[in-house]
Predict the structure.
Amino acid sequence: MRRVSVWARMLKLERTTIVEDVSFDDAANAIVVHVRPNKHAEGRCGECGRRASWYDRGDGRRRWRALDLGPLRAYLEAEAPRVQCPDHGVIVAQVPWARHAAGFTYAFEDMVSWLAAHCSKSAVQDLMRIAWRSVGRVVTRVVADAQREHDRFANLARIGIDEISYKRRQYYLTVVVDHDTGRLIWAAPGRSEATLRKFFDELGEERSYRITVVTADAADWIRRVVKERCPAAEICLDPFHIVSWATDALDEVRRLVWNDARFMGQKALAKELKDARFALWKNPEDLSERQKGRLALIARTNAPLYRAYLLKEKLRQVFQLPPDQAMVLLDNWIAWAQRSRLKPFQELARKIRSHRKGIENSLRRDLSNAIVESANTKIRLLTRVAFGFHSPMALIALAMLSLGGCCPALPHD
């Protein structure tokens, strides 16, 4: 085998790359491989890859970081001429060993991206000897490349939509997950109608009409956009959010009773009510013996608060029954809540009645937003790994890399 062929295989170079020479740079303590594109690959636009007329030599020769060779860094060095593309104007010519505007080879960026999806931040930095901000830019390019090659919206029919806080001071991402593949398919900064419309703009009108089911919480901005862009889709409200409304109403009743006890000077009762929060919030099967005792005390001494607790548990039971039985129980629950003389639950009954169709869809299709909440939990973990990324787009790229099926294979696979 020829020497140049060995170098090409070691550095994972395409056949369109010709190795001219190899040298050692004492100042950089690195191996430098001098390369050039072959006739088929030269003279192409860096953006679209189309043939373009030669413009000038650009800034002369430049280097691209390649995968390390043992303890030594390795670089590819080549001319970087500019061409004049009819669509993109004067632009640096495409090279077959690296992405446009990148300072690293394909193999190097694929390795960094794989490590970013599977390892800690410090491991990626130490192993690849690269700054974390550079990792963000690498991941963004790799994900953009993968999304151009693979249609993430193919056969899209059932989606889940939610928002997640990724930074202090109310910074949010809107995320969309495919129920059938379990993959994150889209994310963008913000949580508004304008943000969600960007997703449907990318999806296109024809594919939007093919969406049959959308799971979400009861946010008005989601419901309005879904009805506008995919009117044939059924909106399924997430059961967890519905039950959380009852938990909030229960806690509001507890605070009212607690404040009344404090106002009446019943300090012992007020302390019991304050300490009973978790006994009221938790599911009965998860209660400790001490919490069961506190709940029994509330049943004997405070009828309104215990009634609120039973209303919360009865609503939770709705989502554990078959659809027909569940809807009968839900109607009974609404009637009970309305005559309970508990204002928070009376307001909740009106709210649930207005969202009855979405709850029925969720029960009938046995769908929830759990898969989206799972993605959100993983994104929260990624925000810790991504500390130092100053752009939300880098975090989104890292999320798509880990959760969206955009992670490249290792270069040696």
